Amino acid sequence: MFASCRQQSPVIHSIDPKIGQMGEVLTIRGENFGKERDVSFVTIAGTAPTSSAYLDWQDDRISFRVPEFGDGGLIYIYVKGKKSNAALFVNQAIMPQPVRDSGPGLSPKIISLSSQTGSIGSLITITGSNFGNSRERGGVFFSWDAELSASTPAEAKMPDFIEASATEFGYELWNEREIRVRVPDGAISGNLEVRTLRGNSAPFFFDITGRPGTKTFWDKRSYTISYSVNVKVNNAQSSNTLYLWIPQPAVSSAQRNSDLLFRNIEPFVNNYRGTSLYKLDNLTKDSETQINLSYKIDVYAMETRIQPASIRQEEAASVMSVYTQSDLLLPCDDPLIKTQVNAILGRERNPYIKAQRIYEWMNSANIIQDTVIEGGVLEALEAKRADPYTGALLYCTLLRAAGVPCIPVAGVLVNRNRQTLRHYWTEFWISGFGWIPVDPALGAGAIPPAFNTRPDRASFYFGSLDSQRIAFSRGIVGLAPMAPRGRPISHSRSYSLQSLWEEASGIDSYSSLWGDITVTGMYAQ
Questions:
Q1: pTM for this structure?
Q2: Model confidence at 292: pLDDT above 80
Q3: CA terminus-to-terminus distance, the chain
Q4: Are residues 281 and 344 in the same domain?
Q5: Residue 196 and residue 110: Cα distance in Å, rounded?
Q6: How far apart are alpha carbons 100 and 97 in whole angstroms?
Q7: Which of 9, 175, 202, 463 has fewest C-beta within 10 Å?
Q8: 254 lies in which domain range?
Q9: pLDDT tens per residue across span 505-516
Q10: Percent of the chain with pLDDT over 90
């Protein structure tokens, strides 16, 4: 087992009650609180109880009377300069009431939830009115939160929101009066809202339960990036078309608020499976066309802490069936892969421990190197040598063969000089908890030049991730050709794992230059 320099921080497992009144007794359960309070303290929405308000302080339990603090807020515990994860306490006096009428107005109205509690990935049914016959640009938003610095203004410390993910089977049904939605990765207890082009619903409180651990977001970095594609036609027929699938920054619980700042050409199809499809018609001989894009994206470091004994993996979940399948890049059904997995895991059944043991095996075998090594996953396993690209694919393949849902992630690392380098890592799924990041390359010490390293890299990069990166694809993005007689072109080892990048029809000869990702600005919180 790995040890981490951050493991002794206080950890909140639960609070009771989660919704209450000022002056009543609130009990926090967890670990690493210390045997006595001394100079340690608790805050709710930035307000600390007086010394006389504390009734009990033990290493795994704290009880105190709730101070006056306003509408509601996040609870943190501070022990010897270390800060815990957050838990949300809501003032019962300001709880929003359900909207039970269907009076005038077009805004969506929530009447009831099939359950006001649920775990990450669980399915809930929302009934109401004015949701629309289809989702279009609407969504269901759950509360989300990150640790903020002490200098952050108080008005900026309220919880944010995260939308249910359409690409991760988040929506099963959407009509005028009913929505069936899955609780997204990263959601916390708090308000739930339905948002459509007609407006936003009144909020409902939804309690996240059944987590086998904690997930903390911190060290926010806001990046502005630019990239481009330059096409030069050498020879073409009079009627021709060139399709370009250009990836956008991915969106996840740790990578948020992707905003388009500039593009010089409008896409033919916007935001299709994480890409924008551009259609260039009737290009002439010796002509040049350039597509320029600029985005702003917020990236958070993520730290997870898991209690493996509390995990209950759902075998029938959609994520389980889809992200344990074999494909060309991830041949998890190959006998060589199966044999190696059996040798590593034996009869182990816990998915988290499986992921940890495979990670430890790859580190102990010194498989991943910091140089480019040709070949695929099977060649890497036979030679016991891989680069960061094949290393991430190998780890993902081994986990899928072990029955653990896993996806490869592609993007770029950003070093101290704001230079970018293509990089690959992974995420695996734990039911009731969500996605857990693993960076096999950085954990093995395959560190690029001028990159800020960590002394605890081996333990940190299993379950946690820094914010010195930008992801462009989570999973392998399958794209279909557009033209029956088109000439499709794929790019390997690029900053997005997608099956198709270009497709030419009626163009005899052309060249395309895909520029690197350029960081034009960065703000660290």
A1: 0.82
A2: yes
A3: 32
A4: no
A5: 12
A6: 9
A7: 175
A8: 218-299+476-524
A9: 999 999 999 999
A10: 69
Read off the pLDDT of residues 300-334 as tens digits, 9 standing for 90 and up: 999 999 999 999 877 657 788 889 999 999 999 99
Same domain, yes or no: 295 and 317: no
Q: Do residues 338 and 195 share a domain?
A: no
DSSP H helical ranges for 62-181: none
d(Cα 297, Cα 249) in Å, to the nearest integer? 7
Gap between the Cα atoms of 343 and 358, Å rounded: 10
The chain-wide mean pLDDT, for the chain, equals: 89
295, 316: one domain: no
- Give every strand in the sheet of 434-438, ordered side by side: 434-438, 420-430, 406-414, 469-474
CATH number where 469 lies: 3.10.620.30
Same domain for 331 and 422, yes or no, is: yes
Domains contained in the chain, number: 4
Angle, helix 388-401 to helix 351-364, in steps of 10 degrees: 140
CA distance 353 to 334: 22
Whether 327 and 377 have beta carbons less than 8 Å apart is answered as no
CA-closest candidate to residue 229, choices 286, 294, 291, 293:
291
Q: Are 247 and 495 in contact (CB under 8 A)?
A: yes
Same domain, 333 and 442: yes
